[in-house]
Amino acid sequence: MRVGGLALSPACVYSPAAMERQRAFSWFGAACAIATAVALIGSGWPWTVAAAILLIWLGSLWLSTAKPPRSTPRREPSPFSQDNVEAVLALSASPQLLTENGKVVVVNEAARQIIGAHIAGQDARVAFRHPEAIELLNSEDSGVCTIRNFARPQDCWQMRRQIIDERLALIELANRTAEVVVERAHTDFVANASHELRTPLAAIIGYVETLREGDGAIAPATADRFLSHIHREARRLQDLVSDLMSLSRVEAEKHDAPSSRVALAGTVRRAAMDAAGPDRAARVDLSLDSGLLVAGDEPQLEQLVRNLVDNSLKYAAEGGRVRVGLTADGMRYARLTVADEGAGIPKEHLPHLTRRFYRTDPGRSRTSGGTGLGLAIVKHIVERHRGRLDISSEVGLGTTVTVRLPLVGHIGNTDAGAETIVPSNLAEPG
User: Fold this and answer.
1) Strand 103-107 to strand 96-100: parallel, antiparallel, or no bridges (unpaired)?
2) In a structure prediction context, what are the per-residue pLDDT tens digits for the chain, which is 430 residues long?
3) Other CB atoms within 10 Å distance of the CB of residue 369
4) Which secondary structure element, helix H or strand E, spans residue 270, and what is its range?
5) Is 156 helix (H, G, I), strand (E, B) or coil?
6) R_g of the chain, CA atoms, integer Å
7) Of 176, 283, 340, 363, which has fewest CB within 10 angstroms of its CB?
8) Domains contained in the chain, CATH given
9) Residue 396, by phi and psi: left (phi above 0), alpha (psi -120 to 50) or beta?
10) CA atoms within a 13 Å half-sphere pointing along the CA-CB vector of 298
11) Closest CA to 304 of 401, 169, 236, 197
12) Its pTM surpasses 0.70
């Protein structure tokens, strides 16, 4: 910049960058400005011009060190309101709540069914009454916590809180009970399977060590008895592994409905006789309708019948008979019943009979060679075939297991004696 032919210091040029660089007033620049003004006056310049140049110079130095005024951001109105958020939450199938300054102002229908409509207008901490939920609600940040025993005993919910603005927050609940139940079932299954495997293995190892340490001094009869125990426990292990593999296969296929048509009477007859064997066949009474067709997996249906008949023969009274019946239940189902004349099962055990490794009398079950998986396998086979399983029992009178499978047709005979298949045109049961 030039004034009257003289070059001025760049310090007098204002720019934002210069303002950022200058942090303190430049006294050296001010001294240079004063010296320049004195030199101009000494050179014959009018003092008014020299004073003007001095003021401009000093002003530019002051501007270069001055901080710009702090800008106040313009506060935009929140796009969220109780009305528009309530309209959105009403469309959600998951339980959701809107809070304003910690108070519940909106509750959608799903949340009303879980918690109740009475929580509208309440403090959210009072509505939930759970330590982890209260801790999350007291915080100023978004977050997630787990609430147990919230709506029902043993249930598990995940609560997610999302801050919308300084007033509003959205709370969403997700039911995690099924995941917890599955995880607990897997844990229990591993623990029970380990226990069931450990028991026969311990017996086998004990007998083998005794035989080895006997160094030939054990009497042949005693050694033979030990070997019989080893053989029995090994067979028990084999049965347990076989049942575990069967259960795994059935569970893997339970979502795939079988499509093959099976004449159920022949399958039931063959499987019942196989389960009874030559020694117990006389104890089985069969009454089978030979005209029923179901959509099924024949090997699995045979396993279902074997398990039921074998259980009934094991737990029936000494020499007691087992009745196996197959009839049409109306026009929609084939009904298979397996009934014994045993001691019966107390009512408190009935809801748990299809659980894995569940036994009403563990000592008797292990003595008879049961693995505790027979009815669990039956339940999964029935589920895969879209059927229904019912167990009824009276102490002292015996137990009856009833399986209903959806019919797809029946076998009829024409006048010429040829076999024909007549469809049932039935809806698949839910």
Assistant:
1) antiparallel
2) 443 444 444 444 444 444 444 456 677 777 777 887 787 777 777 878 778 877 887 777 777 766 666 666 665 655 555 566 666 776 677 888 888 888 888 888 888 877 877 778 888 887 787 888 888 888 888 888 888 887 777 778 888 988 888 888 888 888 888 877 777 777 777 777 777 788 888 888 988 888 888 777 788 888 888 899 899 889 888 888 888 888 888 888 888 888 889 999 999 999 999 988 888 888 999 999 888 999 999 999 999 999 999 988 888 777 788 999 999 988 889 999 999 888 888 888 888 888 877 777 655 555 555 677 888 899 999 999 999 999 998 888 889 999 999 998 777 643 333 344 444 444 344 3
3) 12
4) helix 264-280
5) strand
6) 43
7) 363
8) 2-65 (no CATH), 82-175 (3.30.450.20), 181-247 (1.10.287.130), 257-423 (3.30.565.10)
9) left
10) 11
11) 401
12) no
Tokens for 212, please give them: 């080895």
For tokens 């109105």, what's the residue?
77
Evaluate whether 306 touches 375 at the Cβ level (below 8 Å). Answer: no
**Residue 8, φ and ψ in degrees, nearest 5:** -100, 160
Q: Give the tokens for residue 330.
A: 């109306």
Q: Which residue has the tokens 């084939």?
A: 334
- How far is Cα 59 from Cα 181, in angstroms, rounded to an integer? 78
Q: For the chain, what's the residue count?
A: 430
Locate 270 and state its tokens: 């063959």
* Strand order across the 96-100 sheet: 103-107, 96-100, 168-175, 156-163, 143-148
Instruction: Return the SS3 of 240.
Output: helix
Give the DSSP per-residue string, 40-80. HHHTT--HHHHHHHHHHHHHHHHHHHSPPPPPPPP-PPPS-
Q: Are 381 and 369 in contact (CB under 8 A)?
A: no
15, 29, 34, 63 from 11: Cα distances, Å:
10, 7, 14, 10
Q: Which residue has the tokens 């028991």?
A: 199
Question: What's at 104, amino acid-wise?
Answer: V
- Maximum C-alpha span of the chain: 144
406: nearest Cα among 425, 387, 389: 387
